[in-house]
Amino acid sequence: MKTMKISEAVVRRLPVYLRFLNELSKKNVQTVSSQDLGQKLDLNPAQIRKDLAYFGEFGKKGIGYDVDYLIEKIRQILKLDKIIPVALVGAGNLGRALCNYNAYLKDNMKIIAVFDSHGSKIGDTINNLKVKPTGEMKAIIQEQKVRIGIITVPAAEAQHVANQFVEAGVEAILNFAPMIIKVPAEVRVHHADFTTELQSLAYYLD
Amino acid sequence: MKTMKISEAVVRRLPVYLRFLNELSKKNVQTVSSQDLGQKLDLNPAQIRKDLAYFGEFGKKGIGYDVDYLIEKIRQILKLDKIIPVALVGAGNLGRALCNYNAYLKDNMKIIAVFDSHGSKIGDTINNLKVKPTGEMKAIIQEQKVRIGIITVPAAEAQHVANQFVEAGVEAILNFAPMIIKVPAEVRVHHADFTTELQSLAYYLD
DNA sequence: TAGATTGTTAATCGATTAACAATC
DNA sequence: TAGATTGTTAATCGATTAACAATC
């Protein structure tokens, strides 16, 4: 099963499971069934079992899933069992907001460098990180083995930043700019676009 | 066709079309084909034609789509042809960042009120908006006919804010807190969760 | 007219859900 | 043992893509 291709929909649900399991763990809940999970997360229990079964047999028939064991397994699947260094470009309001999530990301992902191309921002300190000029991006990314890049610059600069990330060897990009960026197929891009999100929400108004 | 139920996937693509069409319009491009659109947006042309055809016959055979006409139509479909008042709760970094997008949202959606429950934030001015105490939420939301609510408070407070939104009569919620919130079925909720986004991205690292 | 491109039907593909034997 | 719940197969459902007649 290890070689089977996993659908994007499945991968997107794993972090949702993980978050809820973490809450259960904090409350010292030992065991959870797909039934329970489905109820809380508004998902079909069969779907949850199937999602997990792609990666192994994590449950016990008649019992359910051990919460802490399942957390460990999902963290492994998502590669969150070791620190992933992240860099962010664009020290505007959104960039600052995301840097301050650093604490929230716990021990797995860490924004370890922040860049901006505008002199006025360079040298600022955000959450203990000094904003550096984009000219230093490549060197720092390679030196610190940054694997994920976050783009929070204006739309017009997004593609340029993406190019720099790719050249520096970043493996995946989370793009907050309202602009589709083109990268080589081996680099994974996710879009997190606040405006499209809001606009599609408007559709559902009466 | 007006009564047919449109899938969520279709609705999520419409704002993406809209954004690209706006760029074309700015460049004075008059006409675009599904071929062109598909190329730029990494989508199948047949899918684009089908998406649009759910709502009417907007194109001309042999020619393509008139850019400005299509913009107008998509704006109507998404109900962006009139101003939609939006309120935001949580004047932290993320909330501030989103308020500053106000300009970007052009004339269709407008964050017209910002609330926070912490005394230290109340009275601050963000992008010409004064942060008000959450106690005033209901009155202001009803008075100003706010239709969409944005939640940018910590996870622990998200459900409480959602309840207040629902009670005040908000029709849809965009939730940035990393927490699933429960609302009555008639209220639409979208989750825009930065951490799950980043975590699913990690899966694709080698 | 010839070339291009839509709108739409039919075919394909993939994801979700139901059902149930296995088993704790 | 009886009850509960998994892992997995089969059935269903829905979304994407291909193909093409209509027509600008």
From TrEMBL, chains A, B:
<dbReference type="InterPro" id="IPR009718">
    <property type="entry name" value="Rex_DNA-bd_C_dom"/>
</dbReference>
<dbReference type="InterPro" id="IPR022876">
    <property type="entry name" value="Tscrpt_rep_Rex"/>
</dbReference>
<dbReference type="Pfam" id="PF06971">
    <property type="entry name" value="Put_DNA-bind_N"/>
</dbReference>
<dbReference type="GO" id="GO:0051775">
    <property type="term" value="P:response to redox state"/>
</dbReference>
<dbReference type="GO" id="GO:0003700">
    <property type="term" value="F:DNA-binding transcription factor activity"/>
</dbReference>
<keyword id="KW-0804">Transcription</keyword>
<dbReference type="InterPro" id="IPR003781">
    <property type="entry name" value="CoA-bd"/>
</dbReference>
<dbReference type="InterPro" id="IPR036291">
    <property type="entry name" value="NAD(P)-bd_dom_sf"/>
</dbReference>
<keyword id="KW-0678">Repressor</keyword>
<protein>
    <recommendedName>
        <fullName>Redox-sensing transcriptional repressor Rex</fullName>
    </recommendedName>
</protein>
<dbReference type="GO" id="GO:0003677">
    <property type="term" value="F:DNA binding"/>
</dbReference>
<dbReference type="Pfam" id="PF02629">
    <property type="entry name" value="CoA_binding"/>
</dbReference>
<dbReference type="InterPro" id="IPR036390">
    <property type="entry name" value="WH_DNA-bd_sf"/>
</dbReference>
<keyword id="KW-0238">DNA-binding</keyword>
<comment type="subunit">
    <text>Homodimer.</text>
</comment>
<comment type="similarity">
    <text>Belongs to the transcriptional regulatory Rex family.</text>
</comment>
<dbReference type="InterPro" id="IPR058236">
    <property type="entry name" value="Rex_actinobacterial-type"/>
</dbReference>
<feature type="binding site">
    <location>
        <begin position="90"/>
        <end position="95"/>
    </location>
    <ligand>
        <name>NAD(+)</name>
    </ligand>
</feature>
<feature type="DNA-binding region" description="H-T-H motif">
    <location>
        <begin position="16"/>
        <end position="55"/>
    </location>
</feature>
<keyword id="KW-0805">Transcription regulation</keyword>
<keyword id="KW-0963">Cytoplasm</keyword>
<feature type="domain" description="CoA-binding">
    <location>
        <begin position="79"/>
        <end position="180"/>
    </location>
</feature>
<keyword id="KW-0520">NAD</keyword>
<dbReference type="GO" id="GO:0005737">
    <property type="term" value="C:cytoplasm"/>
</dbReference>
<dbReference type="InterPro" id="IPR036388">
    <property type="entry name" value="WH-like_DNA-bd_sf"/>
</dbReference>
<comment type="function">
    <text>Modulates transcription in response to changes in cellular NADH/NAD(+) redox state.</text>
</comment>
<dbReference type="GO" id="GO:0045892">
    <property type="term" value="P:negative regulation of DNA-templated transcription"/>
</dbReference>
